[in-house]
Amino acid sequence: MNFWNTIDRPIIALAPMEDVTDTVLRELLLGLADPGCLHVMMTEFVSTDGLVHKKARKRVIHRLQVTDEERTLLQEKNVRIVAQIWGNMPENYQQVVKEITEEMEFDGIDINMGCPVPKVVRRGCCSGLIGNPSLAKEIIRAAQEATHLPVSVKTRIGLKSVATEEWIGHVLETKPAALTLHGRTQKQMSHGLADWSEIAKAARLRDRMGLELPVIGNGDLRSIKEARDKCVEFNLDGAMIGRGIFENPWIFMEEQRERTKEEKLVLLWKHTELFDRVWGDTKNFHILRRYYSIYSKGFSGAAELRTRLMQTESINEVKNLLASYATSACILPTK
Ligand SMILES: Cc1cc2nc3c(=O)[nH]c(=O)nc-3n(C[C@H](O)[C@H](O)[C@H](O)COP(=O)(O)O)c2cc1C
After folding, report:
1. Is 180 in the pocket of ligand 1 (CB under 6 A)?
2. Does the pTM exceed 0.90?
3. Average per-residue pLDDT in the chain?
């Protein structure tokens, strides 16, 4: 049942990102991914407190949605999907983990002990748990007791200062199924560079403790090659890529080159259609603007297209705009 021990090395994972790695983006990335370039995907983080409260649940449950189309691609591409949760109450973890195990089809559950946002840290959640190792361990054990699925942890190398060995020592005592380590402290937020030598320390500690779980490094990766190189250089089992997808949605493919205008526009349209199919008007259409700037660059007329895309309010407006930019029939929207 613990896929972490059986999947190929180096493990390449898509980082969980709030308001980004929903079922739509995951389906889009899965459609492009080549074999061996993507093994694990995580959902956006979901609040355990939110999930157990009837009213708040309605606002967060969509984060655990996996469409049938995504599910088919996960199987075809042999990629695992992990639900990421956060909170600070062990009893809520138990309830949520049980529900995810019994009623949803995830391959694993990941506990977020890394989000650095001051609002959640002040409440003792996410990377706030680095400052409270006994509660952190209680939470991991509560989750483990409630499921047969592998429970992993994603965290940082310290709270206000680097404390990799001390903090990770606590986490490893609970024998998580996998550990993802982002090479920055909470205080660093996303400033400076991730320190991969600290991530390597966690892997060495795992070895000294005689444990078998994979240690996955995270921070600032911009290509699969870089991810694989880091695994070799720092002796890690895997690497996780987050913001790299904003620069290059084709990142999980072996062939890396500048994409043509046609390829960019085809993906832009596919993304828009997918968003419309899954979310319709239940999610703000403007979320797509973040991606429009990725697709509309690097060709003549791109800046003007980008400006006009930023003004669109509906899928029909995007369709009409794209039709006027299409240079070959194959990229014209089909519906
Ligand atoms: C927009 C955004 C949302 C994020 N949401 C989450 C989240 O829900 N759960 C989590 O563990 N980390 C979250 N992160 C952190 C990423 O998973 C990752 O650790 C971080 O971006 C560093 O990796 P990168 O340099 O490859 O982006 C988020 C990051 C970004 C940029």
Report:
1. no
2. yes
3. 95
Task: Scan for tokens 């800046």, then name that residue.
Answer: 303
How far is Cα 66 from Cα 36, in angstroms, rounded to an integer? 22
Among the atoms of ligand 1, which is closest to the Cα of residue 154?
11
| 14 within ligand 1 shell (Cβ under 6 A) | no
The backbone torsions φ and ψ at residue 196, rounded to the nearest 5 degrees and listed phi first, read: -75, -20
Whether the CB-CB separation of 87 and 46 falls below 8 Å is answered with no
Atom of ligand 1 minimally distant from the CA of 45 = 8
Cα(29)–Cα(41) distance, rounded to whole angstroms?
10
Residue entry with tokens 């699925």: 149
- What does the pLDDT look like over 249-270, one tens digit per residue? 999 999 999 999 999 999 999 9
- Asked if residue 237 lies in contact with residue 265, where contact means CB atoms within 8 angstroms, the answer is no
Asked whether 274 lines ligand 1 (CB < 6 A), one says no
Tokens for 130? 């680095």
Is the separation of the CB atoms in 127 and 156 below 8 Å? Answer: yes
Find the 284 Cα to ligand 1 centroid distance in Å: 21
Q: List the structure tokens of 128.
A: 């706030």
The CB of 152 under 6 Å from ligand 1? The reply is no
- Look at ligand 1, atom 20, and give the residue with the nearest C-alpha: 242
